[in-house]
Design goal:
The complex is a heterodimer.
Chain A (H helix, E strand, L loop, with lengths): L3 E2 L4 E5 L4 E7 L6 E7 L6 E7 L4 E4 L2 E6 L4 E6 L8 E8 L8 E2 L3 E6 L1
Parallel strand pairs in A: 2-11
Antiparallel strand pairs in A: 1-3, 3-8, 4-5, 4-9, 6-7, 7-8, 9-10, 9-11
Chain B lengths: L4 E3 L2 E4 L5 E6 L6 E7 L5 E8 L2 E5 L6 E5 L5 E5 L8 E8 L9 E2 L3 E5 L1
Parallel strand pairs in B: 2-11
Antiparallel strand pairs in B: 1-3, 3-8, 4-5, 4-9, 5-6, 7-8, 9-10, 9-11
The chains are: A mainly beta, B mainly beta.
Chain lengths: 113, 114
């Protein structure tokens, strides 16, 4: 049973436009969420996180929104740049950080110049 | 500051063999976690070690094992290899293992089983 779902395996966006990557979770235990970005032949790198006490967190061009009632979060990238082309993983854990990360299957973002 | 180092980067084995993968964490990091990534499956948690003790274990068969040394370096062992074990194996380190803090990943070991 997949507890963290990224239902879009891939997404193509024009350079300069907004990229929206979605993630759904089923386990109510999760209350802390992280996004990681992965380039080919490299390990994932941390991008941004959000806890359930907030509904929005911003870091430069990246914003994560959390809708607890819908068990849904989204990552917005504005404006999208070709260097953002990568696989993006959503991950969930608990606020205490004592629960292993549960990852989604990832969404491959292609930003077209 | 050196990042997380995984060796070897690539490995080819045959069914029934065993394999050992190595992970050297960032200096000062005491926690090492291991993940398996297969096509279309995302990253699946294998286990986490902190100060030489396994603190958490994922849902993998006993053929998958690991250990951590006093210098925080970690090894992962897979015995009696199966075709389905072909995957990218990633390790991640962090100072204290808190999963709500950024994990620092190595570039992985790609294991192919023939």
């Amino acid at each position: 049973d997949q507890q963290v779902k990224q239902n879009s395996p891939s997404l193509s966006v024009q350079e300069g436009r907004i990229s929206i990557l979605n993630c759904d979770y089923t386990n109510s235990m999760f209350d802390y969420f992280l996004w990681y970005k992965k380039y080919p032949a490299e390990g994932p790198t941390f991008l941004i996180s959000i806890s359930s006490i907030k509904d929005k967190n911003e870091d430069g061009r990246f914003t994560v929104f959390l809708n607890k009632s819908a068990k849904h979060l989204s990552l917005h990238i504005v404006p999208s740049q070709p260097g953002d082309s990568a696989v993006y993983f959503c991950a969930a854990t608990t606020f205490s950080g004592n629960t292993p990360l549960v990852f989604g299957k990832g969404t491959r973002l292609s930003v077209i110049a | 500051k050196a990042g997380v180092t995984q060796t070897p980067r690539y490995l080819i084995k045959t069914r029934g063999q065993q394999v050992t993968l190595s992970c050297s964490p960032i200096s000062g990091h005491r926690s090492v976690s291991w993940y398996q990534q297969t096509p279309g499956q995302g990253l699946q948690f294998l286990f986490e070690y902190f100060s030489e003790t396994q603190r958490n274990k994922g849902n993998f068969p006993g053929r998958f094992s690991g250990r951590q040394f006093s210098n925080s370096r970690s090894e992962m062992n897979v015995s009696t290899l199966e075709l389905g074990d072909s995957a990218l194996y990633l390790c991640a380190s962090s100072p204290d293992g808190k999963q709500n803090q950024p994990q620092h990943f190595g570039d992985g070991t790609r294991l192919s089983i023939l």
